Amino acid sequence: MIKEETISCFNPFDGVMEESDKEEELDATKAKVEKVREENEKLKLLLSTILNNYNSLQMHVSNVLRQQQRASMELDQDKDNDFDVDISLRLGRSEQKISKKEEKVDKISNEKKEESKDKRSALGLGFQIQSYEASKLDDLCRQVKNANAENKCVSSRKDVKTVRNENHHQDVLEEHEQAGLKKTRVCVKASCEDPSINDGCQWRKYGQKTAKTNPLPRAYYRCSMSSNCPVRKQVQRCGEEETSAFMTTYEGNHDHPLPMEATHMAAGTSAAASLLQSGSSSSSSSTSASLSYFFPFHHFSISTTNSHPTVTLDLTRPNYPNQSPDDYPLSSSSFSLNFSSPDPPPPSSHDNTLNFSGLRKQAPLSTDSLLAHYRTRLSGQQ
DNA sequence: CGTCTTTGACCGGCGC
DNA sequence: GCGCCGGTCAAAGACG
């Protein structure tokens, strides 16, 4: 190579020129190489920064998971101790013994949860954060319970006994019945493509009727997760114009454990039922705030129709008053329902209606989306 | 074959 | 007492 160059530079005139050209070329190439090296260093630095960020995020996620595990363990203990207390319409866990069949159902639902967890994220944040939030919900349930207890203490001696009684939710039900009131109902109005909204439970349809007041048929379902579960629900379209909105009415107490997806709704509806039980006087800030926590962006009201004390939760009607971002629930976007329709419902024909305002605004950037964001950046850089 | 849905019949509460 | 109406039952059919 050098020899060839020497030979080619044999011409004394051209040789000087070519030599200086070559040197310039060499310098330019060296400069280019240097630039590329610098860019390479920069890219390396950027990559290491991203990797550091990713690692720290992973650390954060693992911390969250650890906290969640601790919280869910406490949640289980609390459920065993006092979650069953105080709530008349309890769609959640009960004290009754679980049959083998129900255990099987529970196992299956847990397996399904694992599957869906994997689908949501490789790190499984969706489900984990739900259960982390569940511990918070449990705390709020206790707040509702305490608020109810305070109200009861004020009202009468008999009620004081009732509050102290472990099964006082049964007493409250009896009081309702004595007063001519039937079982507590919780209506949930939701926008949904499919009337059989995914509320975490398995339902078996046992009837359909066209009510006089509404030309659209009303479907009757009973819970099929347990053979003796007394919980019923009715599903009815809200009107011809709002074909995507359904009113789902829940009635009764589950006698079996529920999957986590169902306990979210159950905790909220239980809070609603507790609010009802404590009477119209319970429009205290704590109880309404608790309901706002369970159904953060939506409108809810209490009414009594045909002797049925009813809490109506309107998930089609956003309610976004002012609030600080610190008040965001951790994973409000994990709710299983589809809140697509912003249309307000027709004015309620119910009487004795108390309205409460939700306290929370928009869902924060979830950890899932944060991870997705980082993954996109990583894949783009590498 | 088991499970679920459909649908007409039936029952009980309520108002007149 | 009667009729209306909401809710439930249960047989038959559909479906996987």
**Protein structure class:** alpha+beta
Determine the oligomeric state from the structure: single chain
The overall pLDDT, averaged over residues, is 55
What helical percentage do the residues reach? 40-55%
Question: Ranges with pLDDT <50 over ≥5 residues?
Answer: 1-16, 79-138, 143-181, 279-287, 320-382
Q: Helical region count? A: 9
H/E element string?
A: HHHHHHEEEEEHHEEEH
The tally of strands reads 8
Biggest sheet architecture: 8 strands, mixed
Rg computed from alpha carbons, rounded to a whole number of angstroms: 31 Å
Strand order of the largest sheet: 2-3-4-5-1-7-6-8
Distance between the termini: 38 Å
The amount of beta strand, in percent, is 5-15%
The global form is elongated
Protein name: WRKY domain superfamily
GO molecular function: DNA-binding transcription factor activity; sequence-specific DNA binding
Organism: Arabidopsis suecica (Swedish thale-cress)
Domain WRKY: 192-259
Walk me through the structure.
Residues 192-259 form the WRKY domain. Residues 19-53, 91-166 form a coiled coil. GO terms for molecular function: DNA-binding transcription factor activity; sequence-specific DNA binding. There is one protein chain. The chain is of the alpha+beta class and 382 residues long. It is 51% helix and 15% strand. The protein contains 9 helices and 8 strands. It has helices at residues 2-8, 12-83, 100-120, 125-155, 157-164, 168-178, 260-277, 285-294, 367-381; strands spanning 185-191, 203-210, 217-223, 232-237, 245-251, 298-305, 308-318, 354-356. Strands 2-3-4-5-1-7-6-8 form an 8-stranded mixed beta sheet, with helices on one face. A hairpin with an 8-residue loop joins strand 3 (217-223) and strand 4 (232-237). Helix 2 (12-83) runs parallel beside helix 4 and helix 3 packs across helix 4 (125-155). The radius of gyration is 31 Å and the shape is elongated. It binds a DNA duplex (16 and 16 nucleotides) through strand 2.
